[in-house]
User: Which sequence fits this backbone?
């Protein structure tokens, strides 16, 4: 009887959390402007695509604008042929390489600019709701532990930042999760195809290929080779197309890596000094909580070598990525760290859900989800 009561309460809490999320999204709606406030167009932007100038849209102060404004405008020109759209970009070739979620907005908006803008603004919201359902595959929301893991994934700093600034990370996470599902259902080639498509959204999504099952026979190695081809083919085709447009500028601004561990040490030491000077409750304290959380997540994945589990392998791929990220991406203040390593956060929590001993669960859970404190940095925007 007690377990049945607990299940009802936990489900009710999950539904309430979903309702609170949707209520927060609804606050971004403005009559006549739709949900364009989600995109984060900068006030005083020197250049806008002609299609954008013709659509009423909400602008934010530059301090709370973000990159979603560029991918939204990229969606007006899905084949990257319009120089006027390029002039509205800060890094046109870089944005063009990450074309997938501009394509999805264009398709959902049926090619009509005003609809494209709304579709782009809301596709993160749709992905969040789909993830809310999909994550129940790995965590049982009828139990307190399962509910805690589900909540930590959906309300993680990185995912909420993606939703409320209309970025690429939420849709990317959904595709990575679908890639894992395909492997679990015995469809590794489908998983590889999903990973290849996801890589058109952002380059690091190619790490979804780590979900591929480990080869144990000659046939498995042949299957792995076919999977590798499916993973890289979409990017190769799109890159070849873009090369005909941008030529030598295509690979500009790709230097986002550093010598292993150096950026982490630099940012950790700098942030710790700032905390000592400004106090743990300052903005530096929130930054430090994110750095500690990511470090705990990486340590857990490193010590719990569960090679058989696809989510562990994906998370391990992002641990390797964390080691070589540069200082800009390791700086939690920009919001990049928790977004870029969002699959690590989710993989950590879903692996943690497999822990049998409650005494081993909660200390790891609390330490690995200190990044949730950073959500308070987003709340004033809601």
Assistant:
């Amino acid at each position: 009887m007690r377990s049945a009561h607990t299940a009802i309460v936990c489900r009710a809490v999950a539904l309430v959390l979903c309702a609170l999320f949707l209520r927060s999204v609804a606050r971004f709606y403005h009559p006549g402007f739709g949900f364009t406030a989600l995109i984060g167009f900068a006030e005083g932007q020197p250049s806008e695509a002609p299609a954008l100038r013709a659509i009423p849209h909400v602008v934010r102060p530059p301090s709370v604008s973000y990159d979603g404004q560029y991918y939204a405008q990229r969606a007006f020109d899905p084949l990257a042929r319009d120089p006027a759209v390029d002039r509205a970009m800060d890094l046109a070739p870089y944005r063009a390489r990450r074309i997938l979620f501009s394509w999805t907005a264009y398709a959902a908006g049926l090619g009509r600019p005003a609809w494209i803008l709304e579709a782009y603004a809301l596709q993160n919201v749709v992905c969040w709701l789909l993830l809310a359902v999909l994550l129940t595959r790995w965590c049982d929301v009828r139990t307190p532990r399962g509910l805690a893991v589900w909540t930590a994934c959906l309300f993680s700093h990185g995912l909420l930042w993606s939703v409320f600034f209309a970025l690429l990370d939420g849709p990317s996470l959904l595709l990575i999760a679908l890639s894992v599902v395909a492997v679990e259902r015995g469809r590794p080639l489908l998983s590889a195809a999903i990973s290849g498509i996801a890589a058109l959204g952002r380059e690091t999504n190619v790490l979804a290929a780590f979900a591929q099952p480990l080869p144990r026979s000659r046939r498995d190695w042949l299957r792995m080779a076919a999977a590798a081809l499916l993973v890289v083919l979409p990017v190769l085709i799109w890159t070849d197309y873009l090369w005909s447009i941008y030529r030598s500028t295509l690979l500009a601004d790709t230097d986002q890596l550093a010598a292993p561990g150096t950026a982490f040490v630099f940012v950790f030491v700098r942030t710790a000094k700032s905390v000592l000077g400004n106090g743990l409750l300052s903005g530096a304290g929130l930054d430090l909580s994110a750095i500690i959380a990511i470090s705990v997540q990486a340590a857990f994945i490193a010590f719990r070598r569960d090679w058989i589990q696809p989510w562990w392998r994906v998370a391990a791929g992002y641990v390797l990525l964390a080691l070589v990220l540069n200082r800009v991406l390791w700086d939690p203040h920009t919001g990049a760290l928790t977004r870029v390593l969002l699959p690590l956060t989710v993989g950590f929590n879903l692996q943690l859900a497999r822990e049998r001993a409650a005494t081993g669960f909660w200390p790891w859970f609390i330490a690995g989800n200190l990044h949730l404190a950073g959500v308070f940095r987003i709340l004033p925007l809601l």
Summary: Strands lie at 41-42, 59-60. Residues 218-246 form the longest helix (29 residues).
